[in-house]
Amino acid sequence: MGKGSHGSNLNGNYAPIRLSSGWKPTIWHDILDFHAKNPHDAHNPWHSFETKVRGLTVRKELSASVSFVIGNRYKDATSYVAKANHDEMFDRFLRDSDWRNDPTNAEIYLDANQFVLSELRKDPSRSPDPFKYCAEKLFGAKLKGINFLQKSDSLVVAGVELAPHGHQGPNGARGNHRNGIRTARRQVSGHEHSPASREGYLTVGTCHRFVPMPKYARGGASGWAHTHGIVYPNGKTAHVFIHAGRARALGRKRA
Question: If you ran DSSP here, which 8-state letter would residue 62 be given?
Fold first, then answer.
């Protein structure tokens, strides 16, 4: 079962609807919005002032995002966190920022970078995951049953590939639904936030609250929807749309 989640819990996420405890495992996408130090706002003083007023830090946002997964997982089932582009903004922050200009986030910046360097010293060919490292350091044993997928990982359930987030397409192209159907195996992805299904490639929606919308998505029309995706035992996939907090109709009231 793939579930779409997008946006920091500090900005507000709806808890996913629990349709059936038998639909396992759960795949989470874009659990981190990284509003605290979004690289697109690196030179935006208004954004910096907003995060200061809200008391938003990198540590708080990482903690809230992982807490969202811990609080909404099926405790008796394995959950997976897909390697997504918003999560990778944390990697970009560690590579491109200067801790001397950001004392608020300096400690987590230095700690995570030290982890990356120590892992590269052990094996220069590996790709360390500082997001996973920080999550494990913050929550320890509470992460039991939650696995952080890497770009090279594969997770196939009933013949459907669930590991890729969808932000990277085939042969180095930018990922989207149109070029996703070119892959050989059916997939469920979570990158576009707008549900779609075509030729065996299904994209889920989001759990993000729409009031307010994220700043980068405000203005103009939107195809975003609160939509999960499920994989049946026979390999068929389907969307589950959420309206007014419900995945099912209310039904007829009994007299």
Answer: H
